[in-house]
Write a structure and sequence with these properties.
Protein name: Bifunctional diguanylate cyclase/phosphodiesterase
Helix content: 40-55%
Largest sheet: 8 strands, mixed, barrel
Radius of gyration: 21 Å
Order of helices and strands: HEEEHHEHEHEEHHEHEH
Bound molecules: ligand C2E, magnesium ion
Distance between the termini: 73 Å
Shape: globular
Length: about 280
Protein backbone atom coordinates (compact mmCIF):
# COMPACT_ATOMS: atom_id res chain seq x y z
CA UNK A 1 0.00 0.00 0.00
CA UNK A 2 2.75 2.37 1.02
CA UNK A 3 4.42 1.71 -2.30
CA UNK A 4 1.20 2.49 -4.20
CA UNK A 5 0.75 5.72 -2.26
CA UNK A 6 4.32 6.74 -3.00
CA UNK A 7 3.87 6.04 -6.65
CA UNK A 8 0.66 8.07 -6.67
CA UNK A 9 2.43 11.02 -5.12
CA UNK A 10 5.11 10.89 -7.77
CA UNK A 11 2.50 10.93 -10.50
CA UNK A 12 0.78 13.96 -8.97
CA UNK A 13 4.13 15.67 -8.57
CA UNK A 14 5.06 14.90 -12.17
CA UNK A 15 1.74 16.15 -13.44
CA UNK A 16 1.99 19.48 -11.58
CA UNK A 17 5.63 19.93 -12.66
CA UNK A 18 4.56 19.18 -16.20
CA UNK A 19 1.80 21.79 -15.95
CA UNK A 20 4.20 24.38 -14.61
CA UNK A 21 6.64 23.82 -17.44
CA UNK A 22 3.80 23.89 -19.97
CA UNK A 23 2.48 27.15 -18.54
CA UNK A 24 5.91 28.74 -18.56
CA UNK A 25 6.49 27.69 -22.16
CA UNK A 26 3.13 29.07 -23.19
CA UNK A 27 3.81 32.32 -21.35
CA UNK A 28 7.21 32.62 -23.02
CA UNK A 29 5.66 32.08 -26.45
CA UNK A 30 2.99 34.70 -25.74
CA UNK A 31 5.58 37.21 -24.46
CA UNK A 32 7.63 36.74 -27.64
CA UNK A 33 4.53 37.31 -29.75
CA UNK A 34 3.57 40.30 -27.57
CA UNK A 35 6.96 41.90 -28.18
CA UNK A 36 6.58 41.49 -31.95
CA UNK A 37 3.02 42.85 -31.87
CA UNK A 38 4.17 45.71 -29.60
CA UNK A 39 1.59 44.82 -26.95
CA UNK A 40 3.69 46.23 -24.08
CA UNK A 41 2.58 49.73 -23.14
CA UNK A 42 3.58 52.17 -20.42
CA UNK A 43 1.22 53.40 -17.76
CA UNK A 44 2.37 56.52 -15.98
CA UNK A 45 2.49 57.31 -12.27
CA UNK A 46 3.18 60.95 -11.40
CA UNK A 47 6.02 61.84 -9.04
CA UNK A 48 5.33 64.96 -6.99
CA UNK A 49 7.32 67.48 -5.00
CA UNK A 50 6.06 66.88 -1.46
CA UNK A 51 6.19 70.58 -0.48
CA UNK A 52 3.55 71.71 -2.99
CA UNK A 53 2.28 68.43 -4.53
CA UNK A 54 3.33 69.63 -7.97
CA UNK A 55 3.94 66.94 -10.60
CA UNK A 56 7.61 66.99 -11.57
CA UNK A 57 7.67 63.84 -13.70
CA UNK A 58 6.30 60.33 -13.90
CA UNK A 59 7.46 56.75 -13.76
CA UNK A 60 6.68 54.53 -16.75
CA UNK A 61 5.33 51.16 -15.60
CA UNK A 62 4.97 48.31 -18.08
CA UNK A 63 1.55 46.82 -18.76
CA UNK A 64 0.85 44.04 -21.22
CA UNK A 65 -2.23 44.38 -23.36
CA UNK A 66 -2.16 40.79 -24.53
CA UNK A 67 -4.27 39.53 -27.38
CA UNK A 68 -4.35 36.10 -25.69
CA UNK A 69 -4.50 37.03 -22.01
CA UNK A 70 -6.03 40.45 -21.71
CA UNK A 71 -4.55 43.12 -19.42
CA UNK A 72 -1.52 41.75 -17.57
CA UNK A 73 0.43 43.33 -14.67
CA UNK A 74 4.25 43.13 -14.34
CA UNK A 75 4.20 40.57 -11.52
CA UNK A 76 2.81 38.05 -14.01
CA UNK A 77 5.35 38.50 -16.80
CA UNK A 78 8.47 40.25 -15.44
CA UNK A 79 9.94 37.22 -13.59
CA UNK A 80 9.85 34.97 -16.67
CA UNK A 81 10.82 37.83 -18.96
CA UNK A 82 13.92 38.35 -16.78
CA UNK A 83 14.76 34.63 -16.76
CA UNK A 84 14.58 34.46 -20.54
CA UNK A 85 16.15 37.90 -21.06
CA UNK A 86 13.06 38.89 -23.08
CA UNK A 87 12.84 41.78 -20.60
CA UNK A 88 15.55 43.53 -22.64
CA UNK A 89 13.17 43.97 -25.59
CA UNK A 90 10.23 44.87 -23.34
CA UNK A 91 12.25 47.56 -21.53
CA UNK A 92 13.24 49.23 -24.79
CA UNK A 93 9.68 49.03 -26.12
CA UNK A 94 8.38 50.74 -22.97
CA UNK A 95 11.19 53.30 -23.04
CA UNK A 96 10.58 54.25 -26.66
CA UNK A 97 6.80 54.52 -26.21
CA UNK A 98 7.27 56.57 -23.03
CA UNK A 99 9.69 58.99 -24.68
CA UNK A 100 7.34 59.34 -27.64
CA UNK A 101 4.43 60.12 -25.29
CA UNK A 102 6.40 62.72 -23.36
CA UNK A 103 7.52 64.36 -26.61
CA UNK A 104 3.86 64.55 -27.65
CA UNK A 105 2.95 66.26 -24.36
CA UNK A 106 5.84 68.67 -24.81
CA UNK A 107 4.50 69.65 -28.23
CA UNK A 108 0.86 69.84 -27.10
CA UNK A 109 1.22 71.41 -23.66
CA UNK A 110 4.57 73.20 -23.92
CA UNK A 111 5.65 71.47 -20.71
CA UNK A 112 9.39 70.96 -21.13
CA UNK A 113 10.11 70.59 -17.43
CA UNK A 114 8.57 67.14 -16.96
CA UNK A 115 10.62 63.96 -17.08
CA UNK A 116 9.83 60.31 -17.60
CA UNK A 117 11.58 57.67 -15.50
CA UNK A 118 11.96 54.20 -17.06
CA UNK A 119 12.87 50.93 -15.37
CA UNK A 120 15.74 48.91 -16.83
CA UNK A 121 16.66 45.34 -15.94
CA UNK A 122 20.16 45.18 -14.50
CA UNK A 123 21.51 43.17 -17.46
CA UNK A 124 21.14 46.26 -19.65
CA UNK A 125 23.89 47.90 -17.64
CA UNK A 126 26.17 44.92 -18.30
CA UNK A 127 25.95 45.56 -22.06
CA UNK A 128 28.30 47.89 -23.93
CA UNK A 129 25.54 48.87 -26.35
CA UNK A 130 23.23 50.45 -23.74
CA UNK A 131 24.27 54.12 -24.16
CA UNK A 132 24.00 53.90 -27.95
CA UNK A 133 20.67 52.07 -27.75
CA UNK A 134 19.25 54.82 -25.54
CA UNK A 135 20.75 57.65 -27.55
CA UNK A 136 19.35 56.18 -30.79
CA UNK A 137 15.85 56.03 -29.30
CA UNK A 138 16.07 59.64 -28.07
CA UNK A 139 17.26 60.82 -31.48
CA UNK A 140 14.54 58.88 -33.28
CA UNK A 141 11.84 60.29 -30.99
CA UNK A 142 13.30 63.78 -30.75
CA UNK A 143 13.32 63.93 -26.95
CA UNK A 144 16.08 65.66 -25.00
CA UNK A 145 18.14 63.39 -22.68
CA UNK A 146 17.41 65.85 -19.85
CA UNK A 147 13.82 64.61 -19.88
CA UNK A 148 14.74 60.96 -19.39
CA UNK A 149 15.65 59.14 -16.20
CA UNK A 150 16.64 55.51 -15.79
CA UNK A 151 15.79 53.36 -12.77
CA UNK A 152 17.94 50.42 -11.85
CA UNK A 153 18.15 48.21 -8.80
CA UNK A 154 21.11 47.50 -6.55
CA UNK A 155 21.71 44.23 -8.39
CA UNK A 156 23.27 46.22 -11.25
CA UNK A 157 25.91 47.60 -8.88
CA UNK A 158 27.21 44.26 -7.66
CA UNK A 159 28.70 42.74 -10.83
CA UNK A 160 30.70 43.88 -13.85
CA UNK A 161 31.59 47.13 -12.13
CA UNK A 162 33.82 48.36 -14.95
CA UNK A 163 31.22 48.21 -17.71
CA UNK A 164 28.41 49.42 -15.45
CA UNK A 165 30.48 52.45 -14.46
CA UNK A 166 31.40 53.18 -18.07
CA UNK A 167 27.75 52.92 -19.18
CA UNK A 168 26.56 55.18 -16.39
CA UNK A 169 29.27 57.73 -17.13
CA UNK A 170 28.31 57.82 -20.82
CA UNK A 171 24.59 58.09 -20.06
CA UNK A 172 25.26 60.87 -17.54
CA UNK A 173 27.38 62.70 -20.12
CA UNK A 174 24.35 62.74 -22.41
CA UNK A 175 22.35 64.43 -19.61
CA UNK A 176 20.34 61.43 -18.43
CA UNK A 177 19.79 61.05 -14.68
CA UNK A 178 20.11 57.74 -12.89
CA UNK A 179 17.92 56.51 -10.04
CA UNK A 180 18.51 53.62 -7.68
CA UNK A 181 15.15 51.88 -7.25
CA UNK A 182 13.78 50.00 -4.21
CA UNK A 183 16.64 51.35 -2.13
CA UNK A 184 17.11 49.69 1.24
CA UNK A 185 15.85 46.23 0.27
CA UNK A 186 18.97 45.04 -1.49
CA UNK A 187 22.40 44.43 -0.14
CA UNK A 188 23.62 45.77 3.13
CA UNK A 189 26.93 47.23 2.03
CA UNK A 190 26.60 50.94 1.39
CA UNK A 191 30.26 51.33 0.52
CA UNK A 192 29.64 50.92 -3.20
CA UNK A 193 27.18 53.81 -3.41
CA UNK A 194 29.64 56.68 -3.73
CA UNK A 195 31.45 54.93 -6.58
CA UNK A 196 28.52 55.27 -8.97
CA UNK A 197 27.16 58.52 -10.45
CA UNK A 198 23.67 58.03 -9.04
CA UNK A 199 21.41 61.09 -8.80
CA UNK A 200 18.44 59.83 -6.83
CA UNK A 201 17.64 57.12 -4.27
CA UNK A 202 14.08 55.81 -4.44
CA UNK A 203 13.22 54.67 -0.91
CA UNK A 204 11.48 51.31 -1.11
CA UNK A 205 7.81 51.23 -0.38
CA UNK A 206 8.23 48.62 2.38
CA UNK A 207 9.72 51.39 4.57
CA UNK A 208 7.16 54.02 3.60
CA UNK A 209 3.97 52.06 4.07
CA UNK A 210 2.36 53.41 7.26
CA UNK A 211 5.69 54.84 8.34
CA UNK A 212 3.87 57.07 10.83
CA UNK A 213 3.08 53.92 12.84
CA UNK A 214 6.58 52.43 12.70
CA UNK A 215 9.34 54.15 14.64
CA UNK A 216 12.06 51.88 13.24
CA UNK A 217 10.99 52.65 9.68
CA UNK A 218 11.23 56.35 10.45
CA UNK A 219 14.80 55.88 11.59
CA UNK A 220 15.66 53.97 8.41
CA UNK A 221 14.10 56.61 6.17
CA UNK A 222 15.87 59.41 8.00
CA UNK A 223 19.15 57.54 7.61
CA UNK A 224 18.60 57.06 3.86
CA UNK A 225 17.67 60.73 3.36
CA UNK A 226 20.77 61.88 5.28
CA UNK A 227 22.97 59.45 3.36
CA UNK A 228 21.59 60.75 0.08
CA UNK A 229 22.13 64.36 1.14
CA UNK A 230 25.73 63.64 2.14
CA UNK A 231 26.37 62.03 -1.25
CA UNK A 232 24.63 64.93 -3.04
CA UNK A 233 21.78 62.75 -4.15
CA UNK A 234 18.06 63.42 -3.97
CA UNK A 235 15.33 61.09 -2.65
CA UNK A 236 11.93 59.92 -3.82
CA UNK A 237 9.66 58.12 -1.36
CA UNK A 238 7.68 55.36 -3.11
CA UNK A 239 4.35 53.85 -2.09
CA UNK A 240 2.89 56.79 -0.17
CA UNK A 241 -0.70 55.76 0.57
CA UNK A 242 -1.91 58.36 3.07
CA UNK A 243 -1.54 61.97 4.17
CA UNK A 244 0.24 61.11 7.43
CA UNK A 245 3.03 59.31 5.57
CA UNK A 246 3.35 62.15 3.05
CA UNK A 247 3.69 64.71 5.84
CA UNK A 248 6.18 62.64 7.81
CA UNK A 249 8.37 62.08 4.75
CA UNK A 250 8.39 65.79 4.04
CA UNK A 251 9.33 66.47 7.65
CA UNK A 252 12.26 64.06 7.24
CA UNK A 253 13.49 66.16 4.29
CA UNK A 254 12.51 63.73 1.57
CA UNK A 255 11.79 66.11 -1.30
CA UNK A 256 9.80 63.96 -3.74
CA UNK A 257 7.10 61.34 -3.40
CA UNK A 258 5.09 58.84 -5.38
CA UNK A 259 2.15 56.69 -4.36
CA UNK A 260 -1.55 55.92 -4.51
CA UNK A 261 -2.26 58.79 -2.10
CA UNK A 262 -1.26 61.21 -4.87
CA UNK A 263 -1.88 59.27 -8.09
CA UNK A 264 -2.16 55.68 -9.24
CA UNK A 265 -0.42 54.53 -12.42
CA UNK A 266 -2.69 55.37 -15.35
CA UNK A 267 -2.78 55.32 -19.14
CA UNK A 268 -1.50 58.39 -20.96
CA UNK A 269 -5.04 59.39 -21.92
CA UNK A 270 -5.99 59.79 -18.23
CA UNK A 271 -2.84 61.60 -17.16
CA UNK A 272 -3.15 64.44 -19.64
CA UNK A 273 -5.88 66.22 -17.65
CA UNK A 274 -3.63 66.40 -14.58
CA UNK A 275 -0.86 67.96 -16.66
CA UNK A 276 -3.19 70.61 -18.05
CA UNK A 277 -4.54 71.52 -14.59
P1 LIG B 1 8.94 49.61 -9.17
O1 LIG B 1 9.80 50.08 -10.27
O2 LIG B 1 9.46 49.74 -7.79
O3 LIG B 1 7.57 50.38 -9.36
C1 LIG B 1 6.73 50.77 -8.31
C2 LIG B 1 5.60 49.78 -8.11
O4 LIG B 1 4.87 50.17 -6.95
C3 LIG B 1 4.59 49.79 -9.25
O5 LIG B 1 4.05 48.46 -9.36
C4 LIG B 1 3.52 50.74 -8.74
O6 LIG B 1 2.25 50.53 -9.32
C5 LIG B 1 3.52 50.38 -7.27
N1 LIG B 1 3.02 51.47 -6.43
C6 LIG B 1 3.13 52.80 -6.61
N2 LIG B 1 2.57 53.49 -5.62
C7 LIG B 1 2.07 52.56 -4.76
C8 LIG B 1 1.34 52.65 -3.51
O7 LIG B 1 1.05 53.73 -2.98
N3 LIG B 1 1.00 51.48 -2.91
C9 LIG B 1 1.31 50.27 -3.46
N4 LIG B 1 0.91 49.18 -2.81
N5 LIG B 1 1.99 50.14 -4.63
C10 LIG B 1 2.36 51.28 -5.27
P2 LIG B 1 3.90 47.75 -10.77
O8 LIG B 1 3.46 48.72 -11.81
O9 LIG B 1 3.06 46.52 -10.55
O10 LIG B 1 5.38 47.32 -11.10
C11 LIG B 1 6.04 46.40 -10.29
C12 LIG B 1 7.49 46.29 -10.63
O11 LIG B 1 7.67 45.74 -11.92
C13 LIG B 1 8.22 47.62 -10.67
O12 LIG B 1 8.56 48.06 -9.37
C14 LIG B 1 9.44 47.24 -11.47
O13 LIG B 1 10.39 46.60 -10.67
C15 LIG B 1 8.86 46.25 -12.46
N6 LIG B 1 8.59 46.96 -13.72
C16 LIG B 1 7.50 47.67 -14.10
N7 LIG B 1 7.66 48.15 -15.35
C17 LIG B 1 8.89 47.75 -15.78
C18 LIG B 1 9.63 47.92 -16.98
O14 LIG B 1 9.24 48.58 -17.97
N8 LIG B 1 10.86 47.32 -17.03
C19 LIG B 1 11.37 46.59 -15.97
N9 LIG B 1 12.57 46.04 -16.11
N10 LIG B 1 10.70 46.43 -14.84
C20 LIG B 1 9.47 46.99 -14.73
MG1 LIG C 1 10.83 51.78 -10.58
MG1 LIG D 1 10.58 50.87 -6.74
MG1 LIG E 1 10.01 47.27 -7.11
Amino acid sequence: HAKDKGKGRYEVFDASMHNKVQNALRLETDIREGIIQEEFVPHFQPIVRLRDKKIVGFEALARWQSDQRGFVYPSEFIPLAEETNLIMAIDLQILEKSCRQLKLWQDQLQRFDLYVSCNLFSNHFFSHTLPDDIENILTKVGLSPQNLRLELTERALLENTEVVLENMTRLKALGIRILLDDFGTGYSSLSYLHRFPIDVLKIDRSFINNVHEHGNHQAIIKTIVDLATNLQMSTVGEGIENLADAQLLEKMDCVYGQGFYFYKPMPASDLVKFLQA
